[in-house]
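Could you please review the protein record set out just below?
***
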Amino acid sequence: MDSNKVLEGKAADYKRFTLTLLILSGYLYIGVLISMFEYHSTAYNYLFALIALLLIAAFQFVRKLQYIQKKLSEE
């Protein structure tokens, strides 16, 4: 019973982390668009790298969440 509560807590945390990373990636993408079309600067290249890292991290959290949900359904 106690391990199920811990896993459910982790699953909820992973969902929150994933949503937060996706929202942050969206804001950064908007920043890229503003940087490209409004200011005509080349600073957006750094933002693309950061967006890629955030999306990779979000994908990893989704994979961990799937693993935890599978483990919870087995018990």
Observations:
- The chain has a mean pLDDT of 91.
